[in-house]
Design a protein that fits this description.
Blueprint: E1 2-6, H1 11-22, E2 28-32, E3 50-53, H2 54-62, E4 70-75, H3 87-108, E5 111-117, H4 139-156, E6 163-168, E7 170-172, H5 185-196, E8 199-202, E9 214-215, E10 217-219, H6 220-232, E11 238-242, E12 248-249, H7 250-264, H8 272-277, E13 281-284, H9 303-307, H10 317-331
Parallel strand pairs: 1-2, 1-4, 2-3, 4-5, 5-6, 6-11, 7-10, 8-13
Antiparallel strand pairs: 9-12
Helix pairs in contact: 1-6, 3-4, 5-7, 7-10
Length: 332
């Protein structure tokens, strides 16, 4: 029997594959689209039994090739570019593909864990897994939102097989180098500081209380742990927020990233005020292209996740970014 991870060469998918390996599980079929070939690097230190292109996999699923051979599908594959404007592509790639897998998993009584997104909330200031707080701002968010609605309908019918959706907030951590402009703020901060000796943030990064932006930043290690918790508990279904449960400023991320870089050079940490005074942190204008399509504030309500029995603490920005920068210094 196999465990399938879609998007396995991507950011979260590769971290889940690695976490499964750390449990001694290698009977993993990795599914992805390697048209961006550099993603293969995320799987070099992972053990799998097979790799399939995403179209080949869905064709085989529909042809009955894997009937009775799969225990669980962890569906992380999707177009996650919030700036993508091709709605037909987004809906086919994110919504329709997910529907095919959901139907098959229910028919086969296979555990189905999938990636939703905090983008489903749009400009809301309340982040509870309830319909009245949802209103995506872009077609990416809509593709995730619509699938969540279908899942709710299926869950209301009390299915025998597990269905779990994770509304990821701002995930950061190892194995995201291939994402380019869609990589995390922490990754961009690291690269900027290494290249220019300073970090640039958008104006308004000072904190929501000052009219700026604060986001829920969640470490990818915690994301993998939550996925494996639900894999271990096939009796638990639902749609769950997956964030840190905290709102922190982009300043917090930048300070942690710069101090992580300084630590690698045996330099003492600096406060936000010291970084700004020394010109190590600068602010630039907020891009016009993001206005009206950008969540200024996010903070996951973890009530449902905790009620489902997941009790482990989530890393703060200071803890998670510090770990991440250490990893980047070893691997980049």
């Amino acid at each position: 029997m196999y465990i399938v991870v879609t998007g396995a060469a991507g950011f979260i998918g590769a971290n889940i594959v690695k976490a499964l390996n750390e449990r001694g599980l290698t009977n993993i079929i990795a599914v992805d689209n390697l048209s961006k070939a550099d993603k293969f690097k995320n799987l070099i230190d992972c053990d799998i039994v097979d790799y399939l292109d995403k179209q080949d996999f869905i064709d085989r699923i529909q042809a009955g090739h894997f009937d009775g051979q799969i225990d669980a599908i962890l569906h992380e594959g999707a177009c996650s570019d919030t700036m993508e404007t091709d709605g037909r592509y987004m809906m086919e790639n994110n919504y329709r593909y997910s529907m095919i897998l959901l139907d098959w998993c229910q028919e086969q009584d296979v555990q189905f864990l999938y990636a939703s997104s905090a983008a489903t909330y749009g400009g809301s200031s309340v982040f509870k897994e309830e319909r009245q707080y949802e209103g995506p701002l872009n077609v990416y968010g809509y593709s995730k939102f619509l699938f969540d609605q279908i899942v709710r309908q299926r869950l209301a019918k009390d299915p025998s097989s597990q269905i779990v959706g994770f509304r990821y907030f701002n995930v950061y951590g190892p194995r995201e180098m291939h994402k380019g402009r869609m990589a995390s703020v922490a990754f961009h901060n690291f690269n900027q500081f290494r290249a220019d000796g300073k970090v640039k943030l958008f104006e308004g990064s000072h904190g929501y209380e000052n009219g700026g932006q604060m986001r829920d930043f969640v470490y990818v290690g915690d994301v993998a742990k939550v996925n494996l918790y639900f894999l271990d508990h096939p009796e638990k279904s639902g749609i769950f927020n997956l964030g840190s449960g905290r709102a922190q400023s982009f300043n917090d991320v930048a300070v942690a990233a710069v101090n992580g870089c300084r630590k690698a050079s045996d330099l003492a940490p600096l406060t936000l005020e010291e970084l700004r005074a020394q010109g190590l942190l600068e602010y630039v204008a907020f891009p016009e292209a993001l206005k009206g399509k950008y969540q200024a504030f996010t903070q996951a309500d973890l009530t449902r996740l905790r009620a489902a029995g997941y009790e482990a603490p989530m890393a703060t920005v200071e803890e998670g970014v510090s770990q991440y920068i250490e990893w980047l210094n070893r691997n980049v």
